[in-house]
């Protein structure tokens, strides 16, 4: 099927481009008219290039819904640019396309229009950044890479903040971002509500009340349906399903998703931020990360909308501050860590893990109820909320000593919001503690008790959370103590872990031995769990 604006941009048809035009490359996660690559561009002369290429769609086993979301959002965005008067060369995906990489597409267009220069905004991945950095030599044209002004801190600002600090703590960086933006700050420069952080109020278990709101839904339009058919045909071996696709694919619909969140979920976001449910996929989370990361929503505008809900009495401070902290704090912090430490960061494995990723991460076929539920939701939705990612699938990978690169690849593939700059620090750093502790002063390791406290999974599980060494004992329990025992050299001197080591050492030797044996058995038979 021919896509309406595939192929040759308008001015080719009226006699070719004036030479000395710029080629403006817009990537699939830069879908905003405010993207810096468009600053000072000339609609009449310059050519915007966007491309769905095999190399980007297939370098990992991206979830089918993620590909649908991005291709459809790109097509809608390109259309908007055209209707705003821009000249757009758009390559729609086809496995037989002559040009299967961004470099090939850009190289061809540079020749076609005899481009004066290529202009783009910095991308979100070291791999692509390296490629683009070499284009001026390989394509023989100047390449201007502009800073991504959608982030609150520049890469340099983060590096300056980090310089000379013994430990990087998100909380202190977050305060800087609050001061810089003025978000949730009084006119005297104090934090609203008298505290910087209300996390202590945000740890409630959810027992079904108040009911969790239905997620925001947009029914697929003709463009999205066409992309769904394309993905089903050409990406059938990728993870997940396109069934029940209901993500927004335009800025207008993403804005409606934000408003839906503010009206229905934000008031309880804080209280149940750490909760997990056996039958609710989304709880009170915003489900906005796919839109923020792809450019459909602006992160500061999202925070401002949340802050406004507090000022107007529609949401409590613990919810609003907790939400703003995720974006202003964590999101900016992980990006800073990524760019400050790449490319070496991706190879870190300070805990020396060697185990392969169990196959059930791809199938959800495990008797561990919490894991099954998190993976099944991931397969259906290309989404799991933060605590499922951190304390269920992440926690298991940490306790079982999975190789960081394998678990990182999994997270990069399976979520609609996954991009290297945000996935890698969260997984390699926050979950796997493979970087020595930039993202957490102690590993987020937990036994089944934590999952029992925060969820209602355990009552429905094949395993018994109150048992530790028996055949039907919760695997998280013995694996937790095995983790503590095998990493004594790494953590015994950590002040936040001392209590764990004292508890472990206090247990009778035969109990310790039984726990370690049970864990060894589980690790040897991990595929059967
Ligand atoms: P909410 O819970 O509603 O939070 C609001 C917003 O805060 C999110 O939309 C997101 O923009 C931001 N945010 C929250 N936590 C983080 C964080 N730790 N890092 C960066 N931003 C954050 N987030 C991604 O965007 N892409 C990823 O690939 C990704 N991988 C993750 C992997 C692991 C192992 C973990 C523990 C977390 C990961 N996160 C990732 C962070 C977080 O889990 C998701 O941003 C969040 O679950 C997205 O859902 P939401 O929009 O409903 O978030
Ligand atoms: Fe998960 Fe263990 Fe609870 Fe089962 S018993 S749901 S494996 S924590």
Automatic annotation (TrEMBL):
Keywords: Lyase. Transmembrane segments: none annotated. GO terms for molecular function: lyase activity. Pfam families: DPRP. PANTHER family: SLR1343 PROTEIN. This is Deoxyribodipyrimidine photolyase-related protein. The lineage of its organism: Bacteria, Pseudomonadati, Pseudomonadota, Gammaproteobacteria, Pseudomonadales.
């Amino acid at each position: 099927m021919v896509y309406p604006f595939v192929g040759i941009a308008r001015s080719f048809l009226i006699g070719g481009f004036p030479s000395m035009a710029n080629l403006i490359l817009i990537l699939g996660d830069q879908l905003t008219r405010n993207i810096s690559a468009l600053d000072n561009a000339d609609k009449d002369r310059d050519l915007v290039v966007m491309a769905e290429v095999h190399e980007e769609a297939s370098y990992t086993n991206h979830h089918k819904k993620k590909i649908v979301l991005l291709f459809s959002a790109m097509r809608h965005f390109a259309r908007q640019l055209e209707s705003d008067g821009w000249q757009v060369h758009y390559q729609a995906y086809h496995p037989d396309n002559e040009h299967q990489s961004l470099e090939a597409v850009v190289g061809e267009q540079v020749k076609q229009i005899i481009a004066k220069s290529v202009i783009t905004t910095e991308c979100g991945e070291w791999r692509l950044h390296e490629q683009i950095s070499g284009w001026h030599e390989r394509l023989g044209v100047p390449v201007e890479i502009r800073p991504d002004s959608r982030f609150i801190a520049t890469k340099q600002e983060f590096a300056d903040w980090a310089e000379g600090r013994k430990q990087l703590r998100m909380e202190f960086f977050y305060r800087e971002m609050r001061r810089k933006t003025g978000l949730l700050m009084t006119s005297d420069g104090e934090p609203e509500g008298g505290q910087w952080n209300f996390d202590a109020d945000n740890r409630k278990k959810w027992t079904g009340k108040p009911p969790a709101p239905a997620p925001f839904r947009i029914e697929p339009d003709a463009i999205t349906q066409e992309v769904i058919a394309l993905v089903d045909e050409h990406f059938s071996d990728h993870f997940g399903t396109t069934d029940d696709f209901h993500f927004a694919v335009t800025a207008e619909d993403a804005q409606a998703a934000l408003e839906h969140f503010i009206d229905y979920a934000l008031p309880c976001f804080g209280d149940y931020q750490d909760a997990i449910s056996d039958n609710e996929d989304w709880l009170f989370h915003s489900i906005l990360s796919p839109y923020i990361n792809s450019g459909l929503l602006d992160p500061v505008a999202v925070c401002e909308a949340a802050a406004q809900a507090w000022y107007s009495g529609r949401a409590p401070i613990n919810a609003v501050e907790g939400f703003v902290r995720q974006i202003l704090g964590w999101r900016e912090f992980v990006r800073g860590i990524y760019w400050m430490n790449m490319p070496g960061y991706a190879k870190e494995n300070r805990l020396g893990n060697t185990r392969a990723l169990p196959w059930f991460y791809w199938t959800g076929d495990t008797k561990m109820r919490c894991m099954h539920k998190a993976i099944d939701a991931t397969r259906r939705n290309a989404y799991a909320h933060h605590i499922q990612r951190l304390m269920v699938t992440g926690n298991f990978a940490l306790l079982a000593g999975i190789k960081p690169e394998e678990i990182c690849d999994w997270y990069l593939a399976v979520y609609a919001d996954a991009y290297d700059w945000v996935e890698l620090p969260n997984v390699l750093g926050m979950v796997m503690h493979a970087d020595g502790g930039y993202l957490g002063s102690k590993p987020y390791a937990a036994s089944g008790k934590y999952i029992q406290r925060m969820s209602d999974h355990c009552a429905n599980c094949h395993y018994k959370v109150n048992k530790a060494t028996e055949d039907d004992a919760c695997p998280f329990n013995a694996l937790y103590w095995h983790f503590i025992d095998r990493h004594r050299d790494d953590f015994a001197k950590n002040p936040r872990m001392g209590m764990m080591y004292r508890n472990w050492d206090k247990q009778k030797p035969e109990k310790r031995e039984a726990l370690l044996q049970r864990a060894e058995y589980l690790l040897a038979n991990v595929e059967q769990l």
